[in-house]
Model the fold of this input.
Amino acid sequence: MPGPLPALIVVDVQSAFDEWEAAGKRRNNPDAVARIADLLKAFRTRGAPIFHIRHEGTRPTSSFLPENSGYAVKDEAREEPGEPVIVKRVNSAFIGTDLEQRLRAGNITTLVICGATTNHCVETTTRMAGNLGFDASLVRDATWTFDRIGLDGDQHSAEAIHAMTLSNLNGEFARIVTADDVIASFAAE
Done:
């Protein structure tokens, strides 16, 4: 008899990131939101649990203040009735929320994590999932990040940041997979 279905954790797929890109910030994985939509479809078809995470900014200049346009979820990742939305105010979806309690109450031990950004809220949530004992998979083509300037003024590409973050997480905190891997695993059951 198969165990409980994995849960999809969709982190911060909010309009602020489109606004950042429109303002000139460069990102990687331009098809990430389409892959997230594919995952949502597969989990919904399978009847597997989905948890939507929203970031609510606390600094006055945050793009994620609830009254700002950037707080809105992107249409492709919008929740459907019955899919919980969990609002966080820090990087981890487990801090200051009831996500862990909901997962444990549902006897959910396996998580599939996607969203934005790879090296911030996705990474922090994935690290905590691993530390809390969840069997986590991070979907490499369903997350993205932006170029950054380093401490010494060096330019770091979104691709390099994304790759290094995935390397740091792989094996110890999560398995790194693709959206196709996850969807194929449902078909194989």
